[in-house]
Amino acid sequence: MFSVLADVLPSIANQLFSLPVIFSLVLGVIGGLIIGALPGLSATMGVALMIPFTYGMNPIAAIVMLMAIYTSAITGGSVSAILICTPGTPASAATAIDGYPLTEQGKGLKALGVSIISSTIGGLFSGFCLLLISPLLASLSLKFGAPEYFLLAVFGLSIIASLASESLVKGLAAGFLGVVISTIGIDNDSAFPRFTFDSRNLMGGIPPVPALIGLFSIPQVLGEIDRVLRRAKSGAEKEKIGEVKGALFPSWSEFKSILPTIIRSAFIGLYIGILPGAGADIGSWVSYNEAKRFSKKKELFGKGSLEGLAASEAANNAVTGGAMIPMMTLGIPGSAAAAVIMGGLMIQGMVPGAELFTVKAQTTYSVIFGFIIANLFMGIIGLLVSRYVVNITRVPAGLLHPIVVVLSVVGSFAITQNIYNVYVMIVFGVLGYFMKRTKFPASATVLGMLLGSMAETGFRQSIIMARGNVLKYYLSRPLCLVLIGLIILGVILPVIIERSKKRKSIQA
To answer: What's the CA gap between 358 and 377, in Å, rounded?
Structure first.
């Protein structure tokens, strides 16, 4: 696989440093930082909104822009977390614990500097791991047949269902809903219409992009409106914006003291990113807890610890590259945003799997190097605008939310110039809102929609290959046995962890 990289390296440089790609990179980084810094918006929503606008773009420029938005939005979420104690994205929740106390101490600018530096290191680390690990994992996928792909889809669904929700039942139910949605339309084998209700529009199935926009954009807007109305009703004070003053960069001694934490958190974030469905929020919390456990200054955590801040930010950006590894090689996204980016890949005719690293190696490696450069640009631009970034948090919600709704409608319609896509977006938006209210994970539903067809096709083909003895056929294949073990572990492990937590709380 690496010999392929050596062959295409000269052409990669020419493509990456072309004007359209550089422009897309910078636009994605700036757009991601703004989206992340605005409370109520998420990285997943930002990526979903931009997918329709990538139609007709150069594939490299399109995918690089989506990746840049993803990683930059995760970093941007720290801005509002540090300045107003309101995480811009769920991934920055742990950042607020020490970020805001630092702002109250007059160290808001240093907190932003540490956040951006840690995020950049974590993102660059995950980018290089994406470059090194993905070809190896892709070569392994060549050994996969129909049974393995079926079990792989089931594994992805089981993991995201168990990790993306407080309730295993709700997670599995949300994943099953996604699988059911994936079956809507004409059956590829029998040409029989399924769940179409004699509607011509449903014959081709549910269009994925409008559904993704609806699931991740509209609930954010409706949820934020609910929050604003509740605050107004309760008479709560408006969130105070902290001052951005002081030194931007930490001292050399401060940087040396947090560097081991950054490195450890980057490894943790990468590992959690590879796990389907774990996401940046879980990565940041796990890293924060580990940083506190290893720290010699535990008493500072929650009161303005640079270690705690660095741990959260290094991990949540390391998750971004980690989430791309199973997505690009096996077709199993490691996070909700990665699932949306996978939809963008497919739109550009890039199907995840070994083919990306052989037939389409030039485009794939260009995208990976673009992701690495995006993290570098994010660090440079973030540090340059740190003193002025506070103004982003002052954008009134009354202006922001209508813009998001308009972009959702325009983006959905622009795909095929069909009003039906807008209706799909609205329906899934309402569905996503009620799922959010009732704590059903929308990410599990998305994975069900994306992996459902893979699971169905793999299962059908394996039945034919098994010639009537399906169980014996599956148990006779070593890779199938490994995947079955992982599926069982993925379902049982969260239950064991939950029971262990309850037992510890009772003892305490």
So the answer is: 28
pTM attached to this predicted model:
0.73
Residue 172 — pLDDT band, cuts 50, 70, 90? confident
For residues 94 and 287, give the distance between their C-alpha atoms in angstroms, rounded to a whole number.
9
Q: Rounded to whole angstroms, how far apart are CA atoms 97 and 447?
A: 31
Residues 421 and 415 sit within 8 Å (Cβ to Cβ): yes
Domain edges within the chain: 2-232+244-497
SS3 string, 9-68, reads: HHHHHHHHCCHHHHHHHHHHHHHHHHHHHCCCCCHHHHHHHHHHHHCCCCHHHHHHHHHH
Helix, strand or coil for residue 349?
Answer: coil
Q: Label residue 246 exposed, middle or buried (CB < 10 Å: 0-12, 13-18, 19+).
A: middle
Q: Note the pLDDT tens digit of each residue in 430-471.
A: 898 888 888 888 777 877 887 787 788 888 888 888 877 878
Q: Following DSSP, what letter does each residue of 451-506 receive, concatenated?
A: HHHHHHHHHHHHHHHHTT-HHHHHHT-HHHHHHHHHHHHHHHHHHHHHHHHHHHHH
Sign (positive/negative) of CA torsion 300, 301, 305, 310?
positive
The two tokens of residue 382 are 């973030």
